[in-house]
Amino acid sequence: MLQPEIKITDTFWQQYRHLVKTVMIPYQWSVINDDATVQIEQENANSYNVTEKSHAIQNLKIAAGQATGDFYGFWFQDSDVYKWLEAVAYALRYEPDQHLQNIADDLIDLIGQAQESDGYLDTFFQLQAPAEKFQHISFSHELYCMGHYIEAGIAYFETTGNQLALTIATKMADCIASHFGPKPGQLHGYPGHPEVELALAKLADVTDEPRYRDLAAYMIDQRGQQTPNFFAEQNDQNKHKHLTLPFPQQPDPAQSYFQNDRPVRELDHAEGHAVRMTYLLTGMAHVARQTQDKELAATCQRLWQDIVKKQMYVTGGIGATVAGEAFTYDYDLPNDTMYCETCASCAMVFFAQQMLKTTPQGEYADVMERELYNGTISGMSLDAQHFFYVNPLEVDPQASAQDPTKSHVKVQRPAWFGCACCPPNLARLIASVDQYLYTVKDDTIYSNQFIANQTDFGNGLQIEQQGNYPWSGQITYQITTTTPLPFTLALRIPAWSQANFQVSVDGQPITATLEQGYLRFTKTWSATTTIIIDLDMSVRTVQANPRVTADLGKVAVQRGPLVYCVEEADNGKNLAWLSLPEQPTFQIHPDTRGLALSQLQSLTTIATKVSAPAPDAPLYTKSTTPVRQPQAITLIPYFAWANRQAGEMRVWLNQD
User: Residue 373 — φ and ψ, nearest 5°?
Assistant: First the structure.
């Protein structure tokens, strides 16, 4: 089948995509051009000193000879520009805009002028340390930045046909290939921050050049080789150099933080920096499919299972600690000190997509759905101009202000960060959400997400999906063919509804059997067929595996794909004193109290709350049954929290 042409008609995602195009992209452009007046916040008390501006575009102008001055900002600042450009490329597909395209074309020209003749481009090293290129790979982010440009260049070329955008990308890849590889005189290494691997795999698909795929495969398999360890080699070579670079020298070249302590094929546990791990896995899964490497594919499957069954939050968040923004150990999922970086949730969507392309299974699309409706879009406010780096499951404003170990837990979304990787990453994900709806493999079309759309698959085949998801569980598919066409249509039934769903075909109820999470309809399709799926949208409480000690005795509330939370704005202070009954009854309400998303629905129920002790009550007393009073409470979708006044928030609630 041909590459499908997808038009999203979904109310929920149309609103988000319109916000990206009309608010988020212009806002972020003003920030990276230093035109916006924003308060840039430090990510946490122990992070690098906060910057006062972005300067990302100005760095490119200086490198291109269009301006004078010094490099400013974090050394990976170029990537903010490239992710912004990629978001523009996707947005132009659903909302063409000649003015915006002209801005992006000019940016491509600027990037081309900043790029050196051999294809190298990293403004930090070009302006600050030109003699030290590719000498500090563990921390330098050179390959990370170039990987992000390669992704952006591909997307912009595919959208607009701008050949320069792709030429810059291939020159970058050729530059990397000339420096890295197994030949004598080359660097036998790999990036400190994985990204370029997945970008090279994409470039191989677009250009049909297997050498880019082979380079990605080389870097993946070279990673963690101990004789010699690449980072250890470079670290040793730099010991006696007088370096003024701002990033730290790696104290232990074998740290699992870099997924560098052993070859990736030996990994059985997701470890280290969460975004690095999931970007690496995304590239591994793509290369495994390209090369038909079953062992590498099995490694990806093994690590997928480790993440989703032992190290993932109910919101889809990953990364349990601020120390290294990292995974820790199985079932360690604290709610008030977690990290759950927005970029990590985006990366889980990228990883899930690659796993679906290799072996379409409902569990991959289920996790993708959890991320799309919870762990990713919680990273932006409903005004599209404020952002979370960290997405907590429990917030106390006093703790965030006065406990240094919780300084990364923000009570409200800042306007920008010095390390601003998350806002443009989220923009490019939302703008490209159409890429996650279908997987076409062999003679089967897999419908992975319930995002209303009209799609032309070529050969006279069109599929229209209608519905009001995530608020309604009724989804209608109309399959139209101009001539009889044999194929299989596989429709995902989410794990949360597999015990209770109904299906009808052309008005006739059918009894359906699931295969790997999908309903499969195999036949020769002709004229128009209508399939209606009704999912179980009743509110449910879920509990965690008891090994997750942070959630013992607690439940989370979900409806459809959405995780809900309680906020102080609705329920007052001391949310930790609330408890739900064993079998709570919920009512569903349209939310009209200032949360500016059309059709947003809140939940209400009756809980109990511990009566407040007297102001002079002793710190400890003989144990007694606490006095509780009934209290009506309101829950809102987790993605919508922190859009009103600052206050407490909790996802997991005590249960009587």
Answer: -95, -5
For residue 504, give the 3-state DSSP assignment: strand
Burial class (CB in 10 A: 0-12, 13-18, 19+), 213: buried
**Which of the residues are catalytic?**
325, 421
In 161-293, where does DSSP find H-type helix? 163-179, 196-207, 210-222, 230-237, 274-291
What number is the average pLDDT over the span 580-609? 86
Can you tell me the distance from the alpha carbon of 250 to that of 328, in angstroms, rounded to the nearest whole number? 20
* Per-residue b or e along 39-57, where b marks 16 or more CB atoms closer than 10 Å to that residue's CB: ebbbbbeebeeebebbbbb
* CA torsion angle 377 383 386 389 (round to 10): 0
**Helix (H), strand (E) at residue 355:** helix 342-358
CA dihedral of residues 508, 513, 518, 520 (deg, nearest 10): -60
The more confidently predicted of residues 598 and 563 is 563
**Residues 351 and 543 sit within 8 Å (Cβ to Cβ):** no
Residues 234, 231: Cα–Cα separation, whole Å: 5
pLDDT tens digits for range 493-550: 999 999 999 999 999 999 888 999 999 999 999 999 999 999 999 999 999 999 999 9
Q: What SS3 state is found at 365?
A: helix
Q: 340-364 b/e with 16+ CB inside 10 Å = b?
A: bbbbbbbbbbbbbbbbbbbebbbbb
Closest CA to 271 of 254, 249, 295: 254
**Structure confidence at residue 592 (pLDDT):** 67
Between 207 and 244, name the one with better pLDDT. Answer: 207
What's the CA gap between 425 and 421, in Å, rounded?
6
Query: pLDDT tens digits for 389-402?
Result: 999 999 999 999 99
Q: How far apart are the first and last CA of the chain?
A: 54
Which two tokens mark 365? 């699309």
Question: Is the pLDDT assigned to residue 38 strictly greater than 90?
Answer: no
- Pick from 386, 342, 381: which is nearest to 36 by CA? 386
Q: Checking DSSP bridges between strand 578-580 and strand 653-655, what pairing results, if any?
A: parallel
pTM above 0.85, yes or no: yes
- Percentage of residues in the chain having pLDDT higher than 70: 95
Strands (E), 493-627: 501-505, 508-510, 514-515, 518-535, 540-542, 554-559, 562-567, 578-580, 587-590, 601-610
Cα gap 561→554, rounded to integer Å: 19
Distance CA 151, CA 625 (A): 59
